Structure formats: C-alpha cells, structure tokens
Amino acid sequence: MAPIDTSKKPIVWVLGGPGSGKGTQCEKIIAKYGFTHLSTGDLLRAEVKSGSERAKCLTAIMERGELVPNEIVLDLLKEAILARADQSKGFLIDGYPREKSQGIAFEQAIAPVTVIIYFEASSETLTKRLLGRAESSGRADDNEETIKLRLKTFLDNNDLVLAQYPEKLRRINAEESVDVIFGEVQKILDPLVVN
To answer: What gap in Å lies between CA 188 and CA 193, rounded to an integer?
Structure first.
C-alpha cells in the first residue's frame, strides 16, 4: 500500500535544466495551490545540519566529492513526504529524479508520480541565463565551460527519465515570460487539485 493517496494529494515532479526558471515557478505553485515543495538539495543540507548519524555519513560522501547514494536521498524524500502527508495538498518534487533508476525507485518506495512538468528551454537560453546569474551571484560554477558541461549532463540523463513516462509528461516552453509559463502550469495542475 502506497503511503500517499495521490488521487487526493498529487505528486508532481518538476524538472528543467539549470536556469529554466523551475525555482520561480515552484514558488508560484506553492502560493496558489499550497503544495509542499521538496528539493533534494535542501533536504540533504538540512540533514547534514541536523548532526544525526546519517549526517556524518553524508558529510563524508560530499567531502569526497561523490554523489549521495540514491537510497539515502529516497529515504529523506519519503520521510519528508510522510511527515507532511496529513496537512499537505500535494507535493512538488524539485529536480528529482535525475536519472532513470531514481524514478523507478521513487515509485516503488513512495507512490506513483501523478504528473511530470518539464520546463524546456534551449541550451543557448539556459547558458545565457546562467551567465547572467553568474554576473550577479558570483557563483564559481557559472562560467561558460562549466555551464555547457552541466547542461549536457542534465540533458543526457533527463532525456532517459522523460522517455520512461510519456503518458505523464507535460512539456512547458520555458522561453516564455514567467506569467505565460505559470498560465501553462495552471492548466496542468487545476484539474488535479481536489477542492
């Protein structure tokens, strides 16, 4: 038995390359629909701060520059979803799954995904946005070479994830303005929300 009844509380995977405007759209979705926003990065950072046994293990993995094992990420997601299952109207899972096996594991451990929203933009647009962000943020990973590599890695893995869910996938053109994009998001989410 899945721990979440997705007919009442949709689970939405929000995917899009770095610079696709995912974060902005997630904020608008939370404001309108009252969904719980879970970002694997935030969950990992919070866990590391908690000082738990698992935090020590995570810190060691990250210090070695390795990727955190999927089981740990899934456990954190599952715990966060179950902790908020009673009061949440739905869940936005941001930037996960990053690869095909993660999607399969998520559905086995937690619940089937209701819909996948993919914010699609050309590599040129994403590169331009990230370079613009780099000028204002001073993030070391926002130089052109690194950006191109990040985009390629993201797109290669993402294509495999998307190919697995043709019937649940909704693509949104992320080249549009924030409001036009959110209009498209609402067309996808409105029918899923139980009033």
So the answer is: 10
pTM score:
0.86
Tokens of 189: 């989410």
Is the Cβ–Cβ distance between 35 and 88 less than 8 Å? yes
Angle between helices 40-50 and 70-84 (to 10 degrees): 90
Q: Which amino acid is at 151?
A: L
CB atoms within 10 A of CB 54: 14
User: Which tens digits make up the pLDDT trace of 124-152?
Assistant: 999 888 888 767 766 555 577 878 888 88
**In contact, 34 and 65? CB cutoff 8 Å:** no
Sorting pLDDT into bands at 50, 70 and 90, what band is 5? Answer: confident
Pair of tokens at residue 65:
């520059």
Distance between CA atoms of residues 162 and 169, nearest Å? 7
Structural contact between residues 33 and 193, judged by C-beta atoms closer than 8 angstroms: yes
Q: Closest Cα partner for 174 from 36, 11, 37, 23?
A: 23
Alpha carbon of 106 to those of 11, 102, 135: distances in Å? 11, 6, 36
The full length of the chain comes to 195
Among positive and negative, which fits the CA dihedral 102, 93, 132, 170?
A: positive
Q: What is the pLDDT of residue 2?
A: 52
